[in-house]
Amino acid sequence: MTLANTSVLVLNQNYEPLNVCNARRALVLVGGGKAEVVEEAEGVLRTVARAFRIPSIIRMRYFIRRPRPLARLSRREVFARDQFTCQYCNKRSGELTLDHVIPRRRGGNHAWENLVSACRTCNHRKAGRTPQEARMRLQRRPVRPAASLHSLLSADLEKRPTWRRFFPGFDREWHARGVAAAGG
User: Fold this and answer.
1) What are 101-131's pLDDT values in tens digits?
2) Is 17 helix (H, G, I), strand (E, B) or coil?
3) Can you tell me the distance from the alpha carbon of 31 to that of 58, in angstroms, rounded to the nearest whole number?
4) Whole-angstrom Cα distance, residue 180 to residue 73?
5) Closest Cα partner for 81 from 64, 98, 106, 60?
6) Where would I find the H helices in 64-152?
7) How does the average pLDDT of the chain come out, rounded?
8) Which residue among 58, 59, 60, 176 has the highest number of C-beta atoms inside a 10 angstrom radius?
9) Which residues lie below 8 Å from residue 161, measured CB to CB, with a gap of 6+?
């Protein structure tokens, strides 16, 4: 990765995390007077005429209004929402499958509210039936999880501990997720 593509945390005017951009975009925002550097990273980006210290964190000079991010629907995110646990037998497993609570062939949709994690045994036992028909009980009702910047930026936050101070509760959340994934 070149220095121009180094990740930079972008904060709103009130120091709330907005997103991550590359160093080149961050320098354009700072140079245009739209943002200020809060913290610098290691390295210098050189042009013919000047050298610029690469920022690690920038803050916008004006407040940006934007909608809260939505959690993307994917297998991994469903498993994470369900804490890598079968929603029928409550067994933690590394080999989970996705189960449609109301089967698709019976009008069930492919949405957060109709998808759960299931171990292979429970998924085969339930087959193309509803949980009531299969005499199986869901541990929790499936819901759309609230997306947080913690979850969206977790890979960056792992590598950049100095960013964590702008994410209250990140260390607790990360530790809890690590313990849950390890089966403790």
Assistant:
1) 999 999 999 999 999 999 999 999 999 999 9
2) strand
3) 12
4) 21
5) 98
6) 75-81, 120-126, 149-152
7) 86
8) 58
9) none
**Exposure class string for 91-129: b at 16+ Cβ within 10 A, else e:** eebeebbebbbebeeeeeeeebebbbbbbeebbeebeee
Q: What is the pLDDT of residue 168?
A: 74
In whole angstroms, what is the distance from residue 138 CA to residue 131 CA? 7
Mean pLDDT of 9-31: 93
Q: What is the DSSP string of 82-100?
A: TTTB-TTT--B-SSEEEEE
Distance CA 178, CA 4 (A): 32
| Cα–Cα nearest to 183, from 86, 79, 85 | 85
Instruction: Decide: residue 87, CB within 10 A, 0-12 exposed, 13-18 middle, 19+ buried.
Output: buried
Query: What is the C-alpha to C-alpha distance for residues 48 and 66, in angstroms, rounded to an integer?
Result: 37
pLDDT by residue (tens digit) across 38-84?
Answer: 999 988 888 899 999 999 999 999 999 987 777 789 898 899 889 89
Contacts of 150 (CB under 8 A, 6+ apart): 157, 167, 169, 170, 173, 174
Structure token pair of residue 139: 């541990």
Question: Tokens at residue 94, please?
Answer: 């590394």
Say what the pLDDT of residue 69 is.
Answer: 72
pTM to 2 decimal places:
0.57
Length in residues, the chain: 184
